[in-house]
């Protein structure tokens, strides 16, 4: 297992000894080098949640990557067959995504404020990822248009709301859920199908620009090569008839965090 020290934040906290609680998040490592951050959506989502709390100095965050292709013996003995993400709080391991969310919300200082209740937004962003997977599998106009329609709904919501984030001007759990999925759409969609988000989705691009400027996203974001490799390894997306021109394991990691040059959003 490898420690990622980019997300350690310390400060005055709530415990009697004056130290903030240390939370460890175990995430999947890259399937390319087995050390850097992998392309697991849930791992990035909880990384972002906890990073925001670390920035507020309510916790100290330690992030550890584990190579699931060669998990170390202590990982197997401690967590059986449970894959990351795994949250460790005061020696207690929290497994399974729903339990991790509940633990952050109810047991971690400041976590409650991240979990905004908004049924409209919850409905708006659900099923977005399944539409990406369907598009990569089907590669037809129906699946492409379904994904585009969903993105347009998110764009319309952001236009109507006219705030930096989904529910207001501060980030919440929904942003930590949505943005990693948008990144996968950008990177995997472009690589496998030359799919690009239309520039007329101005409010969606503005949203992504705001997210790209935040450490919570950039520190948790996997490399483009890891996102591509993630989909190559999925059994249902073995692109046997497609010539793979690149070998991700030979490339220097890159991160797509740019905005189309024709969109002038810097002052918005």
UniProtKB/TrEMBL annotation:
Residues 21-104 form the CLIC N-terminal domain. It is a single-pass membrane protein. CDD domains: GST_N_CLIC. The keyword Transmembrane applies. One of its GO terms (molecular function) is chloride channel activity. It comes from the Eukaryota. Keywords: Membrane, Transmembrane, Transmembrane helix. InterPro entries: CLIC_N (IPR053823), Glutathione-S-Trfase_C_sf (IPR036282), Thioredoxin-like_sf (IPR036249). It is found in: Membrane. It holds the Pfam family CLIC-like_N. The keyword Transmembrane applies. One of its GO terms (cellular component) is apical plasma membrane. Belongs to the chloride channel CLIC family. This is Chloride intracellular channel exc-4 isoform X1.
């Amino acid at each position: 297992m490898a420690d990622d020290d980019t997300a350690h934040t310390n400060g005055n906290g709530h415990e009697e000894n004056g130290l903030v609680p240390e939370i460890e998040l175990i995430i999947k490592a890259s399937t390319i080098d087995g050390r850097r951050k992998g392309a697991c959506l849930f791992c990035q989502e909880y990384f972002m949640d906890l990073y925001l709390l670390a920035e507020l100095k309510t916790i100290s965050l330690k992030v550890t990557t584990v190579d699931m292709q060669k998990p170390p013996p202590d990982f197997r003995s401690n967590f059986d067959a449970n894959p990351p993400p795994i949250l460790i709080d005061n020696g207690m391991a929290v497994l399974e995504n729903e339990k991790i969310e509940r633990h952050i919300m109810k047991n971690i200082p400041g976590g409650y404020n991240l979990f905004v209740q908004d049924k409209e937004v919850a409905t708006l962003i659900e099923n977005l990822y399944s539409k990406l997977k369907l598009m990569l599998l089907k590669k037809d106009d129906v699946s492409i248009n379904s994904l585009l329609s969903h993105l347009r709904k998110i764009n319309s919501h952001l236009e109507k709301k006219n705030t930096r984030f989904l529910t207001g001007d501060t980030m919440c759990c929904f942003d930590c859920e949505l943005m990693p999925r948008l990144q996968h759409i950008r990177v995997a969609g472009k690589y496998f199908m030359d799919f690009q988000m239309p520039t007329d989705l101005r409010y969606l691009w503005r949203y992504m620009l705001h997210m790209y400027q935040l450490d919570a996203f950039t520190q948790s974001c996997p490399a483009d090569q890891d996102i591509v490799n993630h989909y190559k390894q999925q059994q249902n997306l073995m692109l046997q008839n497609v010539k793979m021109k690149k070998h991700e394991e030979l490339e220097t990691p890159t991160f797509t965090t740019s905005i189309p040059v024709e969109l002038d959003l810097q002052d918005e």
